[in-house]
Prior knowledge:
This protein has 632 residues and is of the alpha/beta class. The relative contact order is 0.06. It has helices spanning 13-31, 38-65, 72-101, 105-132, 152-170, 177-199, 206-222, 235-245, 262-279, 305-323, 340-352, 365-387, 429-438, 442-462, 484-494, 512-527, 544-549, 559-567, 569-584, 597-605, and strands at residues 136-138, 144-146, 250-257, 284-289, 292-298, 327-333, 359-362, 395-404, 409-421, 425-427, 465-466, 469-473, 502-506, 531-537, 554-557, 588-591, 610-611, 620-621, 630-631. The chain is elongated and about 125 Å long. The mean pLDDT is 90. Helix 2 (38-65) packs antiparallel against helix 7. Bound molecules: ligand C2E and calcium ion (2 copies). The site of ligand C2E has 21 residues, from strand 9, helix 13, helix 14 and strand 14.
Amino acid sequence: xxxVLFYQNYTSATDISAIAVCxxxxxxxxxxxxxxxxxxxxxxxxxxxxxxxxxxxxxxHRLIERITExxxxxxxxxxxxxxxxxxxxxxxxxxxxxxxxxxNGRIECIVDILSWFGAVVFIVGEIAxxxxxxxxxxxxxxQVHQNYYLDLFRFxxxxxxxxxxxxxxxxxxxxxxxxxxxxxxxxxISFLMMAVQDSSQDTSLVCITxxxxxxxxxxLFHYNAYDYxxxxxxxxxxxxYIRDMKKKRFTMLYLYLKDPTPEKxxxxxxxxxxxxxxxxxxxxxFRLRDNKMALIxxxxxxxxxxxxxxxxxxxFNELYEQYQIDYRIVIIKSDHSLHGAxxxxxxxxxxxxxxxxxxxxxxxxxxxxAFGKTLYIMKELKDICEKGDMEDERVxxxxxxxxxxxxxxxxxxxxxxxxxxxxxxxxxxxxxIPLAEKKDYIHTLSKIILNKACKEMNSLDKKGYYLERxxxxxxxxxxxxxxxxxDVLEIIDANNVKYGRIAIELTESRNETDFExxxxxxNELHGFGMKFYLDDFGTGYSNFERIIDLPIDVIKFDRSLxxxxxxxxxxxxxxxxxxEIFRKSEYQVLFxxxxxxxxxxxxxxxxxxxxxxxxxxxxxxxEQLTEFLSPK
Length: 632
Ligand code: C2E
Ligand code: CA
Ligand code: CA
């Protein structure tokens, strides 16, 4: 089948379309916010190669229609340029996929070798073909020869499709299925187009089949749409923006709005966007959540921005008076210790949590340090929970001995948790309990504390000390866990401790559903003999009816009541009456926060059963309880 002259069926319309597609890709890139990572460079090279191929393909076909002695070199040149550009597009395509997939060393190496090997062989073969009269060449009589079976491009096209497809299949798990399917289908469509044009002996479609995958890649991996109504970008773009800034300094203004309606939010977003344009050069506005926006500007491009901010905030206030929506604004300057969008957003939320409504806060260095500590604690808490080691050495069982007034000896103790973290040492509960509660790490911590406290108890028993009971703090939210009772009983069983020697301290809950769950779980555990202490009585909104409804053994009067009783006679009478009511109703009464002899005397007068406080001991490691306990 020598000398089938495919070029004779060529029309330039599709190559012109291919050029147009390349230009459209660049226009889109220039007018949307795109992720400027390494792969965008690869993308641009690919697009340029296809564009080059299409332009030289048009030139080649124009020239070959009128062959003369003088343009033979130009014909070879443009023909080679067309096909070499296209083969290199394949190499770029493979590089792109490789970067995108973060392929592992060995596979990456093999794919690299195969793709460059193919390119080199093709380029050499293509350039050599006129000399060795192989495939395409023009003879002395200006006759064109094109050996169908020795057409290198056809061969290498199939080679690269297999290579690309093969590396995609090998790394299928790293793709989002939708993206994978889309890419696969586009490769298939391009391949079919090539097959169709081959069967009709044409070469017009070659370049456009290369543009299609480029367009898909742009759309799938680089396109970050503005919300076209408000000009804002989403979190993904926010994340990319911060990564792209690298060493550049920038400032971000976070705006939180309290419960805006969607319509008001929409209007405000538009206002906010125009605000930013008025005050800053090249700002980007992001909408991170339904009620949170962020504005970022580059410091170098906005040297006077610092002075602008107070004016901006004043304008803001006017706007919010008009809209009547509460807000908080946090202003954060970029800091090398913060990495990525999640950390900036977390810092914003960390600061916002401490702010009053309708205020503005400038983040300070000390805030970043405090936040860094919080992040570190979070990381360690997560690790503790993921490891789930019931003996984890980072969780310490401190405790405070409790004086039994009747016997005048310390017979019980409250267990208080501390963390001991490698980088920062001892951490107190106020710094980690709220975090652990928020992230649902608290139950694992409680289990570790319970397990360790039981072990300490056994060790004190063995040494011959008398410790009637320990009380352990649990968070009300833990009771929601359906495994709560099972977990607690299992740990106590495993340590062979009598149920009656363990008490759970709980504070009152304000939540109706918590109350019902709490009651159910408490009754179950109480049935096994465990005890319950009501913690911090006097600080919540105590409801006697509810307290009576729960199986509580000991009422712990909060330190504020101890202080109140010391104030004057009337207060003492009030607190004393509470104490008396509980005593009469068969509860035992414990006063917390006894700091001195005066506190002690007053609480004894009010007929407490137990006293606890710094007067006797600050919280100490549990093994040091030996200094307070009596022998059996
Ligand atoms: P809490 O249960 O009310 O614990 C008593 C707190 O009062 C302890 O603080 C203790 O050190 C302190 N305290 C004791 N005597 C005195 C005193 O005479 N004067 C004063 N001013 N304070 C005294 P700590 O250990 O920092 O614990 C704080 C809170 O953290 C606890 O309050 C408790 O709610 C929580 N917590 C501690 N350990 C755990 C735990 O293992 N699990 C849970 N869920 N919460 C815990
Ligand atoms: Ca407590
Ligand atoms: Ca307490």
